[in-house]
């Protein structure tokens, strides 16, 4: 049964006849939605089961990456979705089902998070430590850029993205644009394929809100032994 607490001008919820009422998050705030009521079916086909595994893996990986990463940088970057759902949506697009196991695809999609200048990154295995090293030129282009911009991002194992041991999250205060290089901690089970996602956070100062760059060109790279 639908509930109308404020009469015809309220935000109804529930089912009324053949209509189901709900809420949707938009840039204008939460708005009432309606859809036809249908009885769902569950054919449980192989493609459907694979998609469910990918969805579950993306949700779990997003949870493990944590709110300091997705809460600000990813908010409203995938349509009008909040940060958690935007990051999960990106991971869903970055996963494939390999014989029943979700894995990162070879070339995950890039993602625009904001107007901050993003340089070209170079990725290579770290020297004998089972790590990955990323390097970039320190120059700034345009107004949305500074040497103190914070490097943000995460690294996950390509073959096991939804386990805590497979994820490394960059601490935002650890590396600045001006350092021109970042090296991950040792990757478990090296040498293995990993997926690295990096971007910059820029603080314009004053009353201006924080800004972010696009997602660095997504890569899968083999760590050093």
Summarize this structure as a short list of keywords or feature phrases.
alpha+beta, 225 residues, three-stranded antiparallel beta sheet, 2 domains, Immunoglobulin-like, single chain, 17% helix, five-stranded antiparallel beta sheet
Task: Please give a structural write-up.
With 225 residues, the chain is α+β, with helices and mostly antiparallel strands. It has two domains: 7-36, no CATH class; 46-222, Immunoglobulin-like, CATH 2.60.40. 17% of the residues lie in helices and 29% in strands. It contains three helices and 13 strands; from the N terminus they run E-E-E-H-H-H-E-E-E-E-E-E-E-E-E-E. Strands 8, 9, 11, 12 and 13 form a five-stranded antiparallel β-sheet that branches. Strand 6 (122-125) and strand 7 form a beta hairpin. Helix 1 packs across helix 3 and helix 2 crosses helix 3.
Short description:
The chain has helices at 46-65, 67-73, 83-94, and strands at residues 14-16, 19-26, 29-36, 95-98, 101-104, 122-125, 132-135, 150-157, 167-169, 181-183, 193-202, 211-212, 219-222.
